[in-house]
Every structure is written in C-alpha cells, then in structure tokens.
Structures
1.
Amino acid sequence: MFKQPFELLLGYRYTRAKRRNGFISFISLSSMIGIALGVFALITVLSVMNGFQQELRDRILGMTSHMTLSEGQDKLANWQGLYKQVSKIEQVTGAAPNVMGQGMLSFNENVKAVLVRGVLPAYEPEVADISSKLIEGSLEDLKDKKYSIILGVELANSLGVSIGDKITMIAPQGTISPMGVIPRIKRFTLTGLFEAGMHEYDSGLAIVHLKDAQKVFKMRGKITALQLKLDDMFEVDKVRKYIDNNFKKVLYTRDWTQQHANFFKAIQMEKRMVFIFLTLIIMVAAFNIVSTMVMVVTDKQKDIAVLRTIGAAPSSIQLIFIIQGLIIGIIGSVAGGVLGVLASLNIDVIIPFFENIFGFKFFPEDIYYISNIPSDLHWDDVWLVSGLAFTMTLLATLYPAYRASKIEPAEALRYD
C-alpha cells in the first residue's frame, strides 16, 4: 500500500512541522543545541589537552632521548662498539653517550642539589635539541679539561651566578684518606644558560663535558648509558625486542614512557575525567530528547491511530519516532562536530581574539611555562564523540517510540 519510505518522510515532517504546542518545539530545539554544545566542547577540550600533551612531550624529549641502553650498575664500557651496532638499526636515527650523576653546586653562600649530565658536543645533537634551548653560550664551549658548565636559567638565578663565574661542584664519590672520606670538589666555569620550558630541567640540570664528568664521578672511561633517538618515538618496544634478540651483551633498556611514566599517566587520567564530565552535557541533552519524544507521541496519538487503521505496522510507527529523534541528534552532532573542528584548528586565532576583548591573558608568560594554548586535533576523537552522541540519541528515542507503537487505534479515537 505504501510505495515510499513513509516512515522517513513522516519522521522528517514531524521534525520540521509547526506544532500546536510551542513548548514541544522549544524543548526539541534546546535538545539539539545541547547536543551541539556538548559535542563542540568535548572535541575542543580534547584537542587542547592533546596539544598540551604534545607540547610537554616535545619539551621533555627536546632535552633527552627516546631510549637509553646501559649495563649493570648504570655503567657501560666500550660504548664506541655499541654505538656502531645500534646505528645499524633501521629505526635508530642517532645515538650519543652520556654520564649522569647527582651533585651539589655551590656559589658564595648558595647551594643547590642538581643532576649533572656529561655529554659529548659532537654526538649530543643526534639525540637532543639542546642547542635550540640555549639563550647564552653553545655546546661547543664544553671542552675536555676546561671544566665548563651550562645551567638552566632558574638554577643559575637561584645560585646567583652569571656567565664567567666560577662554580664549585661537590660529588658524592669521595676519596678515602687517613682523615676519612673526603668529598670530590671541582671548580667549573659557567659558559652557557639554557631554558627548556620545563621546571625539572631549568631548575635542576647542569651540563658538562663527558670526560669532565667521568673524572668527577670516577667513571674511569665508562659511561652511564648510550642514548638513542628513533624516527618514531612510539616504536620503542620494537627496538627493545630487536636489541634483546640480536645483541650478545646483556643490556638494560629504558625508554621515554618509563622515565616519565607518572607524568604521562596523570595527563591521560585528566583527559579521561574531562571526557567523562563533558559527556554528561551530551547525556543531559539526550534526556531532553526523551521528554520531547514523549510529548510528541502524546500530541500525535490521533495521527498514530489513523496510520494504524490504514495498515501501518507497529514497527513502522516505532521507526517514525526513532527517525524523528535521530534527526534532532544528527543535526546537533554534525553542528557541534563542525564547530569543534573549526575551533580546534583555529584555537591560535580564537584565544588571542578573546584576550584582546577582555584585556587579559589566559596563561601569562611570567606564571606559566606554556603561555599559548596549543591544539592537536585527532580525528579519532571527532568520530568517537560524534558516535557517542549518535548512540545516546538513539537510546533516548527507543522508549518513546516503543510507547507510540503500543497505542491502540480504538482508544486514541474513542472520543473523536
């Protein structure tokens, strides 16, 4: 009898028709706007959090490597031979030796505990971009037996030192004498300052020449670890398996996900919690669709009765109202998704615009390390949020549509 998909036509017609009850139209519009705002907010916030995560990861890995190789007790001998071996690995783009040790820096009456890193200026650029973080001096100023040192700007400020000052380094590896254990003390000349944008590095890292560090920490020609840089930082597991299966020497591997595990886990936890909280906005809008559909079904009882009388099946009646609710949800999801994508791609323009209007910065440079709000749009997030909104909308329409299919024509038309 019905040659066209009348369920789709009626569902669309009920959505766009001017109803006698204006309140139903208002709730329908508010549900659509609520879903759009929820999808828009969720996509934008997830993109901003992805941007912050990417920015922090770049800053951390700008001062360190993707992976390190070491032997027992954090000492590695004959690193030159290992360097040649790892350089042949397809995923490895660079390698460099380092010496790591804890020490104390003293200048006048100021004393600070620091992490001392010994590097070779010729190799270090292969694994870390320290040169771009330097605001004074250069890595080439670090020369063997010159005992030069490069400090983070916050560390230099707390010590009260400037370029050319002599700084005393105290190492825990002492020298045994008749008077007891005497700490090893060496004077270094400050030749450079760096600013990594990470408090961990700017306030607690000192960089010296590798051979100077070996002498201070009594390494006797050994290094702490060999640093590796990969063409893809997420292939650390693949490189680790290759090393375990093809290298005769027993090596301990440690990658960037392990070195900063708690930090990145905290970011992921925050992202999940924000996702859950903002999903509640979409859920509230979906519940509004339930109330909208219930009132529409009540308003259209006579239409339902007529359709049933002329042969429409209960499943067709149910599909009509499911389609009507889905149209509301799809329009809201698409509108919110488009707005979210546009906002995520243009966050660097939108934020300065509002800062100029309100006359203040959201992240002042003198307080926050990251003063500009970054954004990194992941299309997986867009499809996930849009799919979630669609699913919630579909679930919200099921009960009202089911009630509509159960309406008896005789009961609905009894008093007409």
2.
Amino acid sequence: MQAETLAKIDIIKSAVDLLRKHVKYDDAKARLADLEALTANGDFWNDQINAQETMREKNRLERQLSVIDTLQFEMDDLVALLELGAAENDEEIVADAEASLSILVCVAEKRQLESLLSGEADANDCFIEVHAGAGGTEAQDWALMLMRMYSRWSEARGFKIQLIEESAGEEAGIKSVTMRVEGENAYGWMKTESGVHRLVRISPYDSSARRHTSFASVWVYPVVDDNIEIEIEDKDLRIDTYRASGAGGQHVNKTDSAIRITHIPTNIVVQCQNDRSQHRNRATAFNMLKARLYELELQRREDAANDAASIKTDIGWGNQIRSYVLHPYQMVKDLRTNVEKGNAQGVLDGDLDDFIEASLAARVGNQR
C-alpha cells in the first residue's frame, strides 16, 4: 500500500484506540450486559425514575460502543478491499476503497473530537443566555439573530429547546433571552460559545444605509442535576417579582409571575418568566442560579481563559471571540482559532460545527 493510504489507516486506528480508552471498552461492554439484564426483568418499570436513568445509561453506552465497532468494521472492510484490489491489480476497486477511506478518516476525526467531551459537566444540558450590547435596535436585532442561530444549530442536532426568558426590544429584536438546550453533551458542545460576538453590516434600520457594528454577549452554562450540591444562603439573595413581557400568551402578563434572582456576592442575575406560576418560575430561576454558580466553580477549577468577570464586564471592542461581517464582504472569523468561513448566512443559519470543533480542540490542547 502507498504511504498516504497507510497514514489514513493509522489515523483511523488511533481514533479507534482513543475511543476505546475513553469509554473503557471492556468495562463498558460488561456494564451494558448488566443493564440489558436489568431491563429484561419484569418489574423493571415499577420504579419509573430509576428505570429512565438506567435506559439513558444503556442508550448512551450502546451509542458509544456502536461508534467504535462501526469504525473498526468499516476500516477492516476497506483494508481487505484494498488488499483484494492490489492482488487482482484492479485499479477501480483500489480507487473506490481509497475514496471511502478518506471519508472514514473524516468520520474518525469527528468521533475522536467527541471523545474530548469528558469534562465534569460536558454531558449535561445547558442554558444559553444572549444579551444585546449598547446600540439600541441594532444590537437588539443582532441578539435576536444569535438566538435564531443557536436555535437552528440545536434543532439540526436533534436537541430540544425550551424558552426560559425573553425580553423584547423597543422596536425590534430582543434585549436578552435565556434558552435551555436539552441533548447529549449539549454543554460540552456549546461551552466555547461564551463571549462577545460582533456583527458588521449595512443597517436595515438606517435610512442612510450606513455600515454599523453591533455587539452581543453569549453566556453558556450547564444545567445542574440533583446529584450536585450547591450551597446558597438566603441572605445572599435578592428576589424580585415583575410582570412578564414578550411572547408568553395572553394570560402570562396579568400577574407579577416573573422572577428575578440576584446573587449578591457574585452579582449573578437570573430571571424566568416562561410559566404563569410564580412558584414554578421561582424554581426554574433558582436552578439556573445553581447552574451559574456551578459553572463559575468549574471555570475556577479549570483556570479557564475566559472567566466570568472578563466576559461580562464589557460587551464591546477587545472582548469579542468571533466577528460576523456581512458588508462589504461576507466572512465569519473566530478570533481565538482563526477559523474562517465565507458563507456568513450559512453560519447564521446554524452552521457552527467548524468553529465549535476548532475551539474545543484548542481548549483541550491548552489544558494538556
């Protein structure tokens, strides 16, 4: 075989080996067998909560092992095909196998990247907050565009989105929004999106058709499950109620059901208005606060480059992580990894994978 072909096979082998180590392949197989035996019991569904947790673990292990087994099987199959083509001197078989091998290399590298999502909270669901920067309608419209971008990205991955809070802009767009994204490794994928995002375009709100620069901040933090204890003292909280605004149905605006909680020591503010019930909004906001405090602790432990203070202090120049240019040319550039894409509209429609993958790889590399 040619050196280039052997190099591709080595890449796939390395990815398979890494994935095996990551999931502890033999232990995972044994654990899956135990879970399958549990689910076969006639009284398995008597305890709904434990049953659902068991099924989630079983499905996760099945997906992980299936990825490894499929990569191994397809690699072995292509190697055998290459050897057959070489033995029979059939250039067409060899060419087809080479093309399939190149595709498999891309798949293997993507699966290998997914294995890097092994942080303490990477598997959790996440909250995404978007806040418009200074600039009135321009910035508020940009915040709405970012909300749409993340919604499209999440939907393409099959993630579920729940609107927690939305504050409408005066003329257009939004001042802020909080969404919950539910899906496997949602926080792991989205965590590098925190930061300031910059837009350059001809303003649709400027009668003189001048070019404007707008900023909005994005904040991603993990949903905290009941197994993680976060201590919060009542004396550290300020809880305000207010009348909900925005799209919440005609009944949601009739009472002061919306909740805003401020954690005084850290100045973290969370708010929820998606339910008619003040009690349920309070519970959701409190869970969001726990999640923010947990994420803050994770950042401290990891000594993350972007800490809470630096990101939230100034939504403007010098703090942006990505620039989206729609005029005089089209380009989106990540300022941390230098990844660029010319199809800006595609990115705004949710094509974020190249940016996310590069940022994850860089972040993991910096922590090694």
3.
Amino acid sequence: MSSLTPRRLPIVLTIVALLAAGGLADRAGRPAPAGAREQSPFAMPVAAPTSALSSTWYCAGGTSQLKGFADGWLVLANSEDRTVHVVVTFIPNDPSIRPRHVPVDVKPLSQLTLHDFDYLQAQFVAATVEVRGGGVVAEHFVLGPGGASVAPCASSASDRWYFADGGTTRDATELLALFNPFPEDAIVDLSFTTEAGGIEPEALQALVVPGRGLSVVNVGDHVVRRRAVSVSIVARSGRLVADRIQSYSGSAGRRGLALVLGTPSPGTLWYFPEGLVTKGVVERYQLYNPSDQEAKVELALGLEKGAAEPFDLTVPGGGRITVLANAEGRIPAEVPHSATVRSVNGVGVVVERSIDATKPSPRRGLGSTLGARQSARRWLFAIGLATDTVDEWLVLQNPGTHAATVSVTALADGQQLAIDGLQDVRLAPGRRMAFRLGDHLRRDPLPLLVTSTEPVVAERDLYTVGGLGMSTVMGVPLR
C-alpha cells in the first residue's frame, strides 16, 4: 500500500490526462419561463455549507484490480480556507474482504486524490467519504482501455434511482453499481425499458444489497442485445446509491467509457449547457418516463447563431424516446447550442445526453451525463487540468431572466487563483458561454470554483488531445 503523499498526485494527473474537454464559443438561447426553476436539494449532488458540522459523500462504482477495465479513483476538493479532516472507507463487492478506513486531511483550497487500488483490492470497490464540516466536494473517475470518465459522488442516498441511457448490444457492457452504505440490508427491484418494451427480470426482483455492501449487476445478463436501455431501481426497504458504468468496444463504431451517477427522482426541468452537431460527433438526448402518466415535454435549444423552434415531445407512461440531434434539420450543423428540457404538464422525466466522438472529429470517446436539475450561484469541480495533453473547457448557461456576472478561480494549494480573463464576465440571460481553460492558464491539477451574481448552470468537459478519452459532467453546487 502506498501512503498519502504528494508524490501520488503527478501520477494520478498523468492518468487523468487521458481525458479532454470540449466546448465552444458563446451560445444564444432563451430564458426559462418564470417559476420553472426546479431547486430540490436532493435532485442532484450538492455540497454541504460551511456551517455544517459534518457531511458525507457516497461513491458507488469502479474496479480495483491491476489493469481493470474501469479502474477507480477518488478526488476531493476543499473550498474552505481551513484544513478539513475526512475519513474515507473503501468497501468491496466481496464480503470476504474487509473494508478499509483511511483518515486523511484535505488542505485549505486544495485537491486530494486517492487511488482505490492503493487501499483495497477487489473486483469492484465503493467508497464513503465522511467529512468533518462542509465545503468539500467528492468526484470519482474510472480509467480503462475505453478511456476515462468523471462523475460526482452522491451527497445523499435514496430509495430509488433512475437512468435514461444505456446499452447491451454486442459491442457494449452496461454495469450497475448498487452501493448500500448503511448497516441494514436493502431490498430492491430493477426494471428496464428498452426500444422493444419493458422488462422485469425475475432474478432482479427483491434483490438483496447487503448492509455496508456493494452489488454489481451486469445488465446484459438480463436484458440481451438492446441498444437503448433505461433503468428504474426501487427499494422495497432501505436506501442506496447507484452508478452506471457503460462501455463500448468500438467493434460496431461506438467506442468509449462513461461513468454516470443516477438521479433519485424524475424531474420537470433539466439543463445541458453544451451541445454541437458536427462531422464525427453524434449527440443524443434520451428521455425516460418511469411513471404511469404521459409526459408532455419541451426540448428547447439555445443556438449560438439564429434560433430553433423547440421540440414538443410526448413520452408515454413507462416509456422512453431518443432525440438524435444529428437527424434533426432544425438543429444546424457547426452551430453550438445548449438545451433545456421542461415538462409542460408537470409529469417528471429522466434526461441524459450522450455524445459519441470518432473520426473525422479531433475528439475521441463517449461522454454521457444527466442534466443539471438546478441553477446556482456557486459551483465546484474537484477534477481538472489544462495541459498540452488535456483540453479542459468550462461551459456556462444562464437560464434566468437577468444578466449574470461570473468569475472563475482555481484552488491552488492554499489560495484562490483568479484566472486571468475569466473575472467579472457578463453572461446574458438565456445565453451560454464556453471557455477553454488552456487559453488562460496551464495548470495541473486545476480544481475550479465558479461564482456568479445570478444562478447559472456549470458544466466541465474534458477531452484527450489526439487520443481516446472524453468526459462531460455537471458541476456540484455549493450552498
């Protein structure tokens, strides 16, 4: 086992360099309707405030073996100007292996990275991050032959989780990591909705996720050869956290690796700051309605140039639909856009955006993310770097009716480093902007703090320069 010393960081960041970021110039759009903002504190991960006595993060998915296909890493960022004590507990999917408790201190305004394999070896490993106080954000990433992918850890457990995207075709592997951090067993039912209808595998009804345990389900063992798979995980008893690890081998065209934290509820409003239709890039919006009521949905685009009529969509109860942006004439090629998905009749849906990038695009890989469920004045990204091998982009969307003034700072080993050119930037209502961090500074690592005078939505996109690796993910709001 290696110790927690700064020498780990360059190694980790070299590995993270398999990622890269995509984003483009300012994008136009239209403000969300008044009163449309969904601000549930449990709808997406949210960092505890400074005043909190304690807070906890739950990170469900990742392998922890030599040359694993989705090797797991944990990254913590401390937005406070004081050292924060943290206890990380690594929990294996094998009950014969003891969990490992690792106490660490996260220095003020800095980042700390832990490699799961350095502390516990098992087929799969989850982690609980117990923080003495607030202001700390936990993200994790997986790394393998298909590239690398980042996702936030969960700030709360839930008795249900949903995913809109997924696939079990011959070239695909879809895994669900079900993590129960509590002493009592959780009993869950899993159901799936595909392009061919609904499936409730008998083996996945009343499935036991042991207390303080991790269970991993290979969806392809139960839902065979489906290109579009949405998931509902509902607990009869107990609570848990769910991640999805999706990979495509490249044998049928798609290639990449994506780690996604599920959502604990359907939502009436979803934001996606980034979007682009271009050669070699395929953009899909997956909409899943787990309820028994029909959902009337509007998908509105904010174009950099011009305007596009919104899509009026109907998602049947218990059904799913896919919007392939490349096949829609109203979405012009080479014009960056944002997207806002809103339920018109109040029936919640689950929405994911996936982006596949292959030649002739300079990007390579798979990026998949659920949309942001709220806007906020402060956002934190634990993972990041801007180097010759990694392109990091920050993409902001202002869904409100008032202009926002935005500033971006780096957490730089004990100080907030104001990034030149990204201070007091005006973001007009209904518009979006994208910033290539490498145009403003070169830094490794580069955790980011975004502050705004008005609520905005922040997304970070990472792309490997000249190689395979792509990650698109929303930030974590700071209260």
4.
Amino acid sequence: MTPQAAVPAIAQTQADPSGVIAVAPQRAPDWYDPHKARCPWGLGAGFVVYVLLPLAATAWYLWSEAADQYAATTGFSVRAEDVGSAIELLGGVADLSGSSARSDADLLVAFIASQDMVRTLDARLDLRARWSLPDNDPIFAFDPSGTIEDLTDYWQRMVRVTHDPGAGLIEVEARAFAPDDAQMIAAAVFEESSARINALSAIARTDTTRHAKRDLAEAEARLALARTELTAYRSANQVVNPGTDVQGQMGVLATLQQQLADEVIRLDMLKSLRRPNRARVEQAEQRVRVIESRVADERSKIGGGEAETSTEGYATVVAGFERLQVEREIAETAYGAAQVAYDVAVAEARRQTRYLAAYSSPTVAERATYPDRPMLLGLTVFIALFLWAVGAMVLQSLRDRR
C-alpha cells in the first residue's frame, strides 16, 4: 500500500484572480467498504424477534393451551317429488324441476350460514355455553358475552358447509369441544334445514292453491246462497215442488171441465124436451154456474190471477221457482268445476313437494381433528418468514439509497 493511498489526496491550491481557492474532494481509501462495514446483527435480531419468538409462542399455545375440537359431519340433498305429467313428458319439458331443486339447495346453503339459523340453534342448544367450555383458550373458544353478530362470525368458523352444485349434495361439518356437542349441532342443522325446506314447500303449495281455493270458496258461497234463497221461496209459498202442484191442479181443472161438459149436455137435454121441468132446468143451470165458477177460480190460480187465498198464481210461483232452481244448478256446476280445479291444484302442489334426503347421518368423532396444529404452525412460519424477508429487503433498499 503506497503512502498516497493511505493518506487522502488533497489537490494543490491554485490562485484564482477572484480570490477563490479550489480544493479537490477527498477520496475514500480502497480498503474501506461501507456495506461490508455495517454489522449484520440487526437482521439477526429481527429474525429472532419476528420469526423465532412468534414460532415458539405459537407452538407453545397450540400444544399446551389450545383445546381439542371434535368434528361431526352430515350430508344431505334437496329432493323433489316431481313426476312429470303426461303433457310434460310428451312436450319434453319434464326437466324444468332440476333448476328449482338447485335453487332450493343454494337457498339452503345461505340459510345455514345466516344469523337466523344461529339464533335458532342458540335458543335451542345454548351454543354460547357449548362453545365457551375451555377456560384457558381465549383464541379458539367463544366469549359468552359476545353479541349475536360475534356468535354468527364464530359460527362460520365452527360450521363449514360444502355444496356441490352439479350433484346437488350439501355436506355440513360442525365442530365443538365435545364429540356429543358436535353431533348434536350437526343433527340440529339438518333438522332446521329440513323444517325450512318444508316451510318453503308449504309456501309453494299455498301459492299454487291460493287462487283455486279462493274460487272454490266463492263457488261454495254462491251455491249456499242459491240454496238458501230456494228454501226461503218454498217456505214463503208453502210449496215443495210447484211443478207437482201444478200437475195436481191441472188434474183438478180437467176434472171440473169434464164435469162442466157433462152438466152442459144434461142441461141441453133438459131444455130440448117438449115440456121441460122448470125446477130441474134451474137446478142444472145452477150446477153449471157453480162448476164454471170453480173452473175460473182454478184457471185463475194456474194463470197468475188472484185466487181465494193470498198466495200468488201458480204460473208466477213456478216461474220464480224455476229461476231459483236454474241459479242453483248453475251454482252447483260452478262449484263442481271449482272443486275439480282445486283438487288438481292440490295434486300439482303435492307433486312438486321438496324434502331433504340425508345420505350421511351425523357422525360421532372418536378423536380430535381440530385445531390442525402442524398446519397452523407451518402457516405461522411462512407468514413470519415472509414478513421478515420483506422487512429485510425494505431496510436494505433504504440503506442502499443513503
């Protein structure tokens, strides 16, 4: 090493007419490297603080404090009793029910993850107490003082729903800190899901039959009114069947007319004698007048005139009766058609009933499968190393810019 390299070189001063003296910049020696001169202890300390210590704390907590969790699974699918009718089979549109079943499955998956499901099962099984059993595990156990929103968030951690849209299969995995609790939660999820599907089917049946049921009620009310009016008309006119009464009245009138004809002939025969008996003639004439008066009365009853009683004429009674009878027949026909339409609507609604078919009953775990300690520890190592490496690169980049 030459003396010139060991001592910083200083440029010779030159006089400038303006009086300014120029000095050459100092040059660092060749043996001095600022990057090599910095101590690497900062990165090592950061590795210990940000990688090793979190890793050790995580491993200690997972294997000494974290409570074991048991998982119970159940599987089911939404099925439909949707046998296509003959028209659908001929038309080739019997596959339309598959999309409805798939939409019901999507709706059911959303319902299982909803707050409504959480609130129902919490009231039924006391989820807060079951999920807050470990006293020394604040990370994986639930805080019983949490709100329903906190319980819903925790539910989504402890209950996992897997849905296969193609096959229409739904699998539910419920976790708890006791095997029986996990099985109970899984079974309750299936029961509540089945109840919701049944409710949806009931709503669909109600919607399908609502109009038919309304038409049936209107036809039934119309028929009842027609029958009531006909009964009131019979009571008011004191007749059961005016047609039968008219036939009887016509028989009476025919008999009177026959008697009148006989008496007229007899009267004519008495008058045709050379020396008729005046008393007998007057008696025959009196008999003819009485029969004619009775015939007039009977015709008056049949034709609608006023009779000796205050009742209407048979023609008017029969006309009113026939009108009410026609209205009753029309009401009966409408009621029959409405009843048939309602029966068809009910059959159609039953044909499209949805229900849950379980292909896997809620299981009982024999060993704890959660928390997945190796996976969580590996994830902690990965995250810690990633953050430490990013921080080291950022610090090195800042140093290079100085």
